[in-house]
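Lay summary. Proteins are chains of building blocks that fold into shapes, and those shapes determine what they do. In this project we predict the shape from the chain. Here is one chain we studied, written as its sequence of building blocks.
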Amino acid sequence: MNSRMTNRLMAALAVVVPLIVYLKTMAQTVPFWDAGEFISVSKILGIPHPPGTPLFVLTGHLFGLLPFGSYAFRVNFVSVVTGMITILFTYLLVQKCVMHLQMDPVVRAKAAPAPTEEDEDQKMKLWLSYIAGLTAAWFTAFSHSFWNTSTEIAHVHVGASAIMFFSLWTAVNWWERQGEDMNERRLLTIWYMMCVGIGWHLGGFLVLPAVVLFALVVDWRRSWWMGTGVFILAMWLKWTSYIEENLNVQPDAKALAYSVIGLLVLCVALHFILKKELRPFLWLTVGAFLAGISVHVYLVIRAQHNPMINEAAPSTWSAFWDEFTRKQYAPASPLARSADWTYQLDHMFFRYFKGEFVLGPPMESFPGVKPWTGMLAFLAMGIPIAIGEFGRLYQLIKGQFKADTWVVMHLAVWILAVALYQFGNQHALAISLVFLMHIVDMLLGIKWKQHLFVLVEACFLIGSLGLILYLNFKDPQVRERDYFFLWGYEAFTVWIGLGVIGLIHEGLKAARLTANRRVLVPALGALGLLLPIAACAHFYFEQDHTGNYVARDYAYNMLMPLAPDAIIFTNGDNDTFPLWYLQEVEGIRKDVRIVNLSLLNTNWYIKQLRDLEPKVPIRLQDHEVDGLEPYRDKDESVKLVKDIMVAHIVDENHWKKPIYLAVTVPEQMGLDKRLSLEGLAFRVLEDSTGNHPLVNLEATRKAVYETYLYRGLLDKDGNLTPIPYKDDNQVRLAGNYSAAHVRLAFAYREKNDMKKAFDELDRAERISPDFAGVAVSRGVFREELGDTAGAIRAFEDGIKRFPDNPEINYRLGVLYALKQRYRDAFERLEVARRADPENTSVIFSEFTLLAQMGQAEQADQVMRPYLDAHPEDQRARQLYNDVMRHLGRPGIGSAPQGLPQALPGQ
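And here is the predicted shape, written in a compact code that computers can read:
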């Protein structure tokens, strides 16, 4: 079998193994976050959030026509396919990188003839390239973010990865064929794919600077024109943005004409500046750009047909431009950092990076399996990173003079960085030091003309440090953002593959076993492939999404109990996108109108709610909607457009349609006295006095026990199931079920049915074992029954699981004080005060207790800081004076005498 056929078989193996694993673990239905939106718009040919991703929508619609699986499965399968493309080109790229490594500089220095295919050294080099390619491909496939994004989320990031690695592989092919006729068409192909990729995800363009730099390092005289396309695109974007923001050109046709004229003027000017032989490339570059972005015409055409999901409504040129440039999500200026460097470098990058390539048993506690801890966990995380760093250095210095010196210097930097990070608690400094080393290495790679190293290093730096600087993360983020650095992680897997074969090659030379390399190389290579397989074992439990219906059923449970023709206000992505999916894909409860409060701040969304069925009662004309702006109320609170619109909708509805507020909405927008819980939503009642039950007991009980589905979340006894894996977000949202049962418990308490109240608390605890509110409620109920001993036992049980919870510690401390267990009471109150230093009940109770114990000095130390910070609190001042003067110490101002006989609130 010749080497070409063997390489193809290895490429097939690189793809087939992950494909089998992905098909066994991919999501069968809608997950949380953006997937619900993308699946829905694929079904109805709608428009998702900016920049609209029209190519993904059209591809998703095409995959939706496949004759197998659920509709969500088919659209999720788009990510699996693009993931396989990425894995394929990762293998092909790494295989080429190895073949270009100067594995034996001594032979090269003697000017030995180029080895033939039958040469033994060449055969070993081929086998090493196959091993490196498979290792890198499988580490990519089984890394945390890539696996999750490819199998759980119908998302756009993996498609951008496919474009990235195709572009890198094509760039290497261009380099290998220098001097051939029409070779530049490969660079034009890369440019075209990136332009087409804008319709999938803008991330595909991140590889462009790396390709341009690579081409310039290879031969700047033949490739400097590549910057022409980048220059034209940048200037056209700047010009068009200037038109939209400053010239106020009307109508839209005129603004579009100005934009096109600007592009033509720019191209004609460059036509006369460039040399004659480069002019065809200018027009081919512009033509490829226009052909690539032509898919965006879909947005304008489809928006004019008013699909049910029509985000940003890009039916006009101005609206389209805002969508295309992601004006809604423009990041903060990189010059003014939105958070400190430790947060941005460590928490928002390195925290994810060190968890990407981990070996060993499942990360979470799979039944019967214990994850590694201590040194084993450190090694499981550190070995792949160390191999990758070695592979990076190996690619840089192989064949260069003074290689040993560079190894020692890099080793010193790594040791210093690890020491600063692990022992010096200087996380930002340690990470900055590593990035500085990467930048220096990039410059050395350019100097030494290590072309492939420059290509990979540029990709890594752009996908890591570049995004850290550009995205400028705020603290905190609403969700985990590991997928933003997906392309940096993938570049690093190239070095992991190179590191494995570097260890094999150099190890055999050091051990003087090169004579046996024909047997040892494949054997050691097989051992090397166990590393990504170990990563697969580590993440498999977490990445197995089969049987996980938490998001789908959460949407079902929110919609089904609502009254006919209801309006429900939701808060964000996770209580909106799965509901859209249920309505638009499965056709469930389309009579309900979902009103997303985040989008309700935009004029286009308000108009859609007003005009599209089922209509929301909005009595505002277009010019009135366009004129809505936030304002400051007389009480100095800021009223956003959504606050204005919620009040308007409630007033204009005249109670004709039932209105609900999802329990996930953090603000009640002045409706708090009208709300009555019905499961996962509060019903807005006409009665604004608050003289109604806070919980509709009958409706809520029917919802949670008869209507709701809990597949993959709870077992038949109502316990949280360990399988399938549920991430923090899913567990947190499951807590809303637990909260509903706690509210039911309080409703039963109002009816003096304490047996059912405690049953509801037990149910709530089985759903959310980490919900401290259950322990608090159980103890409070015992207190109200006069069962002080039972209350103490309940709070003591709660302390075992929630040792720092301020509410449990406070209540237990008060009960200890009543039982004259003053030392125990003081310990609990001290914990509560430290956990919640602004809680006046805790401060007053500890202060009074210390006074009763005769500890005047300690009592003063507890109360004085609060009085200094809150001089306006007359109640605290009076309490302090009462106690201090009774103890014979000076007070602050005048106050009546006498020591309180009981703790406050008792």
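What the prediction tells us: The chain has 37 helices and seven strands.
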